Amino acid sequence: MQIKAPVRLDKKTKSLVNRLEAGDIAVIDHDDLDEVAANSLVNKKISAIINCGKSISGRYPNLGPGIICKANIPIFDVIKGDLFSILEEGNTIEIIDNEIFFEGRLISKIEFLSEDKVNELLMLAEENIEIELEKFIENTLVYANKEKDFILGNLKVPSIKTEIRGRHVLVVVRGQNYREDLSAILSYINEVNPILIGVDGGGDALLEFGLTPHIIVGDMDSVSDECLKKCNEIIVHAYPDGKAPGMDRVKSLGLEAVSFPAPGTSEDIAMLLSYDKGADLIVAVGTHSNMIDFLEKGRKGMASTFLVRMKVGSKLVDARGVNKLYKSSIKAKYIIWLVIAAFIPIIMIMLISNPIQNLFKLMIIRLRMIFGL
């Protein structure tokens, strides 16, 4: 295998994606490459991925490498060599088999992750899932006990301008299959006209469908400038101590925002905000709800999500996977019966209409004359 192309480097994959161009080689440092990151890389139509971390560490069966293999994009794990200290953005490198060359010299040894190799590593990770699950449950229970008072009773929710009381609220996270799920509920969105809350990149997910979010909630690390400028309100997820690093970005764009100090994830506080402001129904799309989801986000438990869903559960509808309920195909026999049904009234009219009967008689006489019958 031989690939020659310019490189783009970043230890944060979601930051790198915004700079990638078709044909680039992406250099990342991403242990257990997750599904969302993999899809974002695939969409950029890059020529290869070099991971300075372990694409599959064996902790759990992460989905990212399999997605990249199916897209026919070569993915390599670095065995030897510090690419981030050697290369700069835009440098052209050459991959020859399992080696990387820059300016004619060998700078790194790499391992190609074929589809068979990925499947082998995933099978080993499957054997570790029970151990990881036990750790995950223990961590969730420990932090749930610490955070229960803060989330269930003593959480100070900021005031907002958007009127939510009595309305449906759609909370969109750019998670697994968010496009398919949004497509499946577009008729609901058009009919009910819910308040639209984008959780970080979920705001851009709404823009993809021509929908402008009313509110953006998050730490502002994966939402576009365009989306922040178009939405009506911005709520920056802050740490429980009040520090909100994402606020600097909002202010740099000349925009206003309020902070929401809280533990847990940004999608958690989006649901808490909706519930506190009197939403009649909260519909969630693309949210994270299982162990693999949270491990892929780098979280070792889901205490806050567990508590939040207990609190808002009476008003929450999770639309994740709803697209699979509507997947159907029109069978050929149905089309045939539909065509037959459409011809029945036409045949009936032909049988009882004298003018049409006379027309057919004339046509038959004409055919007999043509063929000499």
Which secondary structure elements does this structure contain, and how are they paired or packed?
Blueprint: E1 2-9, H1 13-17, E2 25-28, H2 35-43, E3 48-51, H3 64-70, E4 75-80, H4 83-86, E5 92-96, E6 99-102, E7 105-112, H5 115-127, H6 129-152, E8 168-173, H7 178-184, H8 186-192, E9 195-199, H9 202-208, E10 215-218, H10 225-230, E11 233-238, H11 246-252, E12 258-261, H12 266-276, E13 281-285, H13 291-296, H14 303-312, E14 316-318, H15 332-352, H16 354-371
Parallel strand pairs: 1-2, 2-3, 3-4, 8-9, 8-13, 9-10, 10-11, 11-12, 13-14
Antiparallel strand pairs: 1-5, 4-7, 5-6, 6-7
Helix pairs in contact: 2-3, 6-14, 12-14
Mean pLDDT: 84
Instruction: Please indicate the percent range of residues in DSSP E strands (runs of 2 or more).
Output: 15-25%
Counting helices, strands and paired strands, the structural category is: alpha/beta
Which term fits the overall shape? extended
Distance between the termini: 74 Å
* Rg value: 28 Å
Count of helix runs? 16
Task: Give, in order, the helices and strands.
Answer: EHEHEHEHEEEHHEHHEHEHEHEHEHHEHH
Domain module tally: 3
Organism: Alkaliphilus flagellatus
Pfam family, one: SteA-like_C
Keywords: Membrane, Transmembrane, Transmembrane helix
InterPro entries: Put_SteA-like (IPR047795), SteA-like_C (IPR022215)
